[in-house]
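Case study 2.
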Amino acid sequence: MADPTIYRYPRQIIRNPDDTITEVERALRQNGDVSIIVKVKDATGHHLVVYHLVYDSNGKLVHGPHEIPGSRDPTCTQPFPPGIGRQP
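Prediction:
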């Protein structure tokens, strides 16, 4: 199957007050959906948890947010980061 991604937005990096880093990667799909990957890392760049969500072309959340299976570090207790949405 071909890659459904037709455009990747520039990666957004958010430095949080608790010294963690949130990376947001958005990709526009052929069907108009926007796929978002949210990576929460510690100060050294170690992944703490990775989330995935999808918005349709109308801006409605149609999938997620859910954790990528096996992505959560056992020491991580953070919930999904607030303020993550469809637009870059």
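The radius of gyration is 13 Å.
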